[in-house]
Amino acid sequence: MTTTPYQRFVVVGHSRTGWHLLRTALKSHPNVVCHHEPFHDRNPQTFPHDTDARIVLDEHLFTPFPAEMQAVGFKIQYEQPVYNPWWQSVWRLLRADTGIKLIHLKRTNLLARLLSEVNALRTNRWLAEKGTRIPLLPPVTLDKRQCLESFQFVERQIGLVDEYFEKHESMDVVYEEMNADVPGTLAKVQEYLGVRIVPITPVTQKIERRLLSEAIANYAELKRAFQGTKWASFFEESPSAIGD
Known about the structure:
The chain is an alpha/beta fold. The protein has helices at residues 19-27, 53-61, 90-96, 110-123, 144-164, 175-180, 182-193, 212-215, 219-225; strands spanning 7-13, 32-35, 71-77, 101-106, 170-174. The longest helix has 21 residues, at 144-164.
């Protein structure tokens, strides 16, 4: 990859782990560029979808920027790219370049994460800007197998990413901790990226504000099904766990 005068970074994580909050906050920083999921192969991009991953990185993402830019990065989800063979090498390229700092988005309560994802798919609404009116959705019914497969997949991917990028400098950003202290978490992210620390504010708001027991129709049934398992803690509700 090309040498750049700014700090390059990549944000890795699953959906519904605080990406839009982090992205919109970093976007407001005068010295940071944060691209939005360039390897999402079902979204329109500013470059053709048959552009090789190395070219995307060197000629479309980590390109020359004005001298005041101190950090440039983007997000990639665990499963991206899904279909595009031209981009499959992006993980190998990122792993080989240890000069890229990693931010790993994680969410402790994977039931809340799944609920948020299911609701987003139901409405095709993945973010809500502050001040937007958000209609209340009817409670959703989740299948036990669906929950189990989701928990296992995310936990497996977290472990794989941590191992795959073990030689990179990395920072975990945990959704619940960020929700509990947004300004403090954003200050830590800026410090980690080596940019000047300024007040930055996300423009998003939570879409789901109810307790899990209110938003999941068969919550009690699921709680009984997972009692005694390592996932039982997902049913110990707290205000920081809910939302999107």
